[in-house]
């Protein structure tokens, strides 16, 4: 079965963080990596690939960083996946497969990957931002109701 590479998941999280935090300013790579929990060197090349593909926009200078190059509602996880898949090393090259696996397993793996890509094309960054915002609102509501409760007997 095809499973998303860990780096791809980190990139999804990084783009989501940028979408949530870049309304008034560019978000630095250091800040993104701190939020995602990885080292800067781990994501910097992938972030540049997203800039070159038109998903992110890089801002230079002391207050530089990254902004979304597209609207949140028009950017899908599938587009990000495609960029990461294009630039990553293909571990499914023909030389890595036995004849039998190349005839049976690889086509199945390719089909699973394609189905997953189609699913990812249906999920926008806006969808994920809405989930985060709803989660934060319900958490804030819970804190407020807990503070206003009266426990006198």
Strand order of the largest sheet: 1-2
Cα-based radius of gyration, to the nearest Å:
20 Å
Q: What is the string of helix and strand elements?
A: HHHEEHHH
Task: Count the domains.
Answer: 1
Overall body shape = globular
Main sheet properties: 2 strands, antiparallel
Query: How many strands?
Result: 2
The CATH homologous superfamily corresponds to Winged helix-like DNA-binding domain superfamily/Winged helix DNA-binding domain
Low-confidence stretches: none
Q: What's the CATH first level?
A: Mainly Alpha
Description:
The chain is mainly α and 153 residues long. The chain has a single domain, classed as Arc Repressor Mutant, subunit A. 61% of the residues lie in helices and 5% in strands. The chain has helices at residues 6-21, 29-36, 40-52, 77-87, 99-120, 125-148, and strands at 56-59, 65-68. It has a two-stranded antiparallel sheet. Helix 1 packs across helix 6, helix 2 packs across helix 3 and helix 4 (77-87) packs antiparallel against helix 5 (99-120). It is globular. The mean pLDDT is 85.
Question: How do the strands and helices of this protein lay out in sequence?
Answer:
Blueprint: H1 6-21, H2 29-36, H3 40-52, E1 56-59, E2 65-68, H4 77-87, H5 99-120, H6 125-148
Antiparallel strand pairs: 1-2
Helix pairs in contact: 1-2, 1-6, 2-3, 4-5
């Amino acid at each position: 079965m095809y499973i998303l590479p860990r780096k791809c998941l980190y990139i999804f999280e990084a783009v989501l963080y940028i979408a949530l935090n870049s309304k008034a300013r560019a978000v630095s790579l250091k800040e993104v990596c701190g939020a995602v929990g990885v080292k800067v060197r781990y994501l910097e090349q992938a972030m540049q690939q997203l800039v070159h593909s038109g998903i992110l926009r890089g801002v230079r200078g002391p207050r530089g960083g990254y902004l979304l190059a597209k609207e949140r509602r028009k950017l899908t996880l599938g587009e990000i996946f495609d960029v990461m898949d294009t630039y990553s090393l293909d571990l499914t090259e023909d030389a890595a497969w036995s004849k039998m696996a190349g005839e049976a397993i690889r086509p199945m793996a390719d089909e699973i990957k394609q189905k997953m890509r189609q699913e990812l094309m249906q999920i926008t960054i806006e969808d994920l931002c809405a989930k985060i915002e709803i989660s934060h609102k319900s958490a804030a509501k819970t804190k407020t109701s807990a503070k206003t409760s009266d426990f006198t007997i």
